[in-house]
Amino acid sequence: MLKINDLHANVDDKEILKGINLEVKAGEVHAIMGPNGSGKSTLASVIAGNENFEVTQGSIELSGEDLEDVSPEERAHKGVFLSFQYPVEIPGVSVTNFMKTAINESRKAKGLEDMPAKDMLKLIREKSELLEIDRKFLSRSLNEGFSGGEKKRNEIFQMAMLEPKVAILDETDSGLDIDALRIVASGVNKLKSKDNAVILITHYQRLLEYIVPDYVHVLHNGKIVKSGGKELALELEEKGYDWLKQETAV
Amino acid sequence: MDLKDKLISSFMAFENNVDVEHPVHDVRMAAIKNFEEKGFPSKKEEAWKYTSLNNIQKIDFSIFPKEENALEYKDVKRYFIHEIDTYKIVFVDGIYSSYLSETTHDGVDICLMSAALTKPMYKPVIDVYFNKVASKDESLTSLNTAFSREGAYIYIPKNKMPKKPIEILHFSTGNEASLLLQPRNLIVVEENAEVQIIERHQSLTSNEVLTNAVTEIFAAKSAIVDFYKIQNDAPTASLIDNTYIDQKDKSLVKVHTFSFGGKLTRNNLNFYQNGEYIDSTMKGVTILGEKQHVDHHTLVHHIEPNCESHQDYKGIYGDASTGVFNGKIIVDKIAQKTNAFQQNNNILISDKASINTKPQLEIFADDVKCSHGCTIGQLDEDALFYLQSRGIPQKEARALLMYAFANNVLSSVRIPELKIRINKLIAEKLGVNLGFDL
Fold first, then answer.
1. Secondary structure (DSSP) of chain A
2. pLDDT tens profile B328-343
3. How close, in Å, is residue B285 to chain A by CA atoms?
């Protein structure tokens, strides 16, 4: 479904990604772990099409289609979703209105009419229940004054609404207490299907107890230095990242 | 003949048509003398450094309007907040239009300045309030005072509140090749009374119009005044708005200024806090394009202790538009425990657009809280990416961010239908349809 070949990317002429290869098939969950500054968030941003990063080499394909020169909004329409580590506050625009706009823009791009208001309300109700989101929450301004946990829950709510093919969750577990983590993880698990894929970007093994990955990759210095099954995450938790750094240095 | 000379000689003709026995006659005489001495302000004056009236003075304005040019309500309906019932004081080319207006004397007076200046029953109010807070020194205010004859007159007695908001509308029809309008408004809100006013100047053709307006507002003890100015005029219409507000103990006055159009707009908004526990609020949203120019000059004079003032102006400047914000706060020595806040944030969305922003604080008391902040920036790229990554196209995403940027100012608009209207105007200015009422 998502195929990344020898991807190199720069920010301000500094190379951050130095040749990433990764294939994610439908129905799979991949975890990408690694120390700070290894390029995890950059990889997430580049997949979603952030133009602040310059792809200098390699390619990203979604269902066989090269995403080069595809704008972030078109990528979203094609089924890429990024849950942000730091969601942006948009005062004056409610969560509901924001989702209406996002969904209808995506429909417009596909040549569909706006979703009827009744269907929209039903969808919002259904998905907000999934994430145990209060009705009042939906009329608040997007992310404005939200706690860390509320912001992350809201990101997953958006994912639920947009039903992406490939969802990248960037540090979705950071800043969550155990209850919020459980709700978010259970939401993601319910959204998982044989037709979509999830990429979890995380520092810690904790999230992976709740969303169990099929594969774990370790990113270090802009490259995937090790891949394995879910047991790799446990190994990392135990030993930290230093042994990998040494291993790759050799 | 230049415009100044033309105005001074026209004053004689004007005097022939008004009652020279009335005490206001002396006020007018003093005013024309002041204007004659000072003339139009030039860029050499600090207060007019960034706004030039030179080109305006080259236009041969008609000073006295001709006969009333009748307008059909259906043709101008969209300029009214027609979704709700309002009182209306409407002028067409400077002349009162009884057909389009809805005035009242039922417990409150919502009517005409021309009546208030001539009928004996209004004389006690005129004697106490007329030209009492407006500057006698500022030349354009004097020019208006000299020719003051028509405008809105609103008197709200103690403990009263009109049943509905009041709209003051000035239309110009292009009857003249170029027209000078000088409306004069007086608004007196007595103790514990309340009023909501929406004001708009609208030119209906591409003929030149210059409006030099003066509004005096008196808010007595515990009075509440909400004043909304909608400035979305034609590209050939210019406005110089001089508003003077006198506040007494515990009164609450809010002025919102929405500047979305016009050729040149100058807002001189002056608050004088003559009492304690007063709250004065000034908010503005400015969205400009083309070669439009808006200049906001605010003044808050904290004269007594324990008062507050809040200023929040947001500006979005595109194309080759230019903006000015000059916020002056004076805190007198006895005005201890003053809280004065001022904020001016701007986004430039074009390389050719510019803004000059300047806080001007003169604080003579030592136990006060005053803060000011001005920013000039571009749209936040991270925020833009966030919206785009949710499938919202760049143009709409930019509009949504600009809307969010201006939103603080809208939250205090207390008439819901007006808020919807302003939101629509903003969406129109930003050139987007976001699929929902913002």
1. -EEEEEEEEEETTEEEEEEEEEEE-TT-EEEEE--TTSSHHHHHHHHHT-TTSEEEEEEEEETTEE-TT--HHHHHHHTEEEE-SSPPPEEEEEHHHHHHHHHHHHHHHTTPPPPPHHHHHHHHHHHHHHTT--HHHHTSEETTT--HHHHHHHHHHHHHHH--SEEEEESTTTT--HHHHHHHHHHHHHH--TT-EEEEEESSSHHHHHS--SEEEEEETTEEEEEE-THHHHHHHHH-SHHHHHHHH-
2. 999 999 999 999 999 9
3. 14
